[in-house]
Structure formats: structure tokens, C-alpha cells
Amino acid sequence: MALKTLDIDALAAKTGNLYETVAILSKRARQIATQMKQELDEKLSYFEGLGLEDDPRHQEEQRRISIEYELKPEPTEIAVEEFLRDEIYYRDASKERSEEEEELR
Questions:
Q1: Is 1 inside any structural domain?
Q2: Is the pTM of this model over 0.85?
Q3: Which domain holds residue 26?
Q4: What catalytic reaction does the record list (predicted)?
């Protein structure tokens, strides 16, 4: 995949802090990676225990599934796109705590 330059200021502007943005993106990317890994394992688990490891049709199907997942965008890329489209929900717990403290005063 081709590298694409990102506007870091645009990313940081959404949260007001670049480091917070990176933390949000990394957490979402890990969630996506875990989900993709589970999907791949689920699809490949069908072939386990069949006892047909030498069958070329099953090998070809396993290869096709693996290549399909290799061609998908990277989890980080998906997370950044979701973040830029405002599809990721996040909250700032420290701001919520400070607001609650102010209300108690």
C-alpha cells in the first residue's frame, strides 16, 4: 500500500492533544487487529481436524483466505480513517471528573 501523509494538526485538533489522539488510535487499532485475527482464525479453524492436509483444494482455499486477509488495510490505517470520519467514540475521564467536582462545590 502506498504511504499517505497525515495532517498531524488535524488529528490533534479533534482531541486537543496529539498524545491523547495517538492513545485513542492505538487502542482502536488493537481492537481492530484482534477482531481481524479472530475472523481469520475462525475461517481457518474449519480446515483443522479434517485430516485432508494433502488435499490441494483445501490448501488452495486456505491460501486464498490468508491472502484475502493480507490484502486488507492495516488496522492502524482503518483506525485513522475511522477517527477522521468521527466514527470512534471516546471520552476524557479527567474532564468528566473535574466537571463532577465543580458541580459538588
A1: no
A2: no
A3: 8-46+54-102
A4: RNA(n) + a ribonucleoside 5'-triphosphate = RNA(n+1) + diphosphate
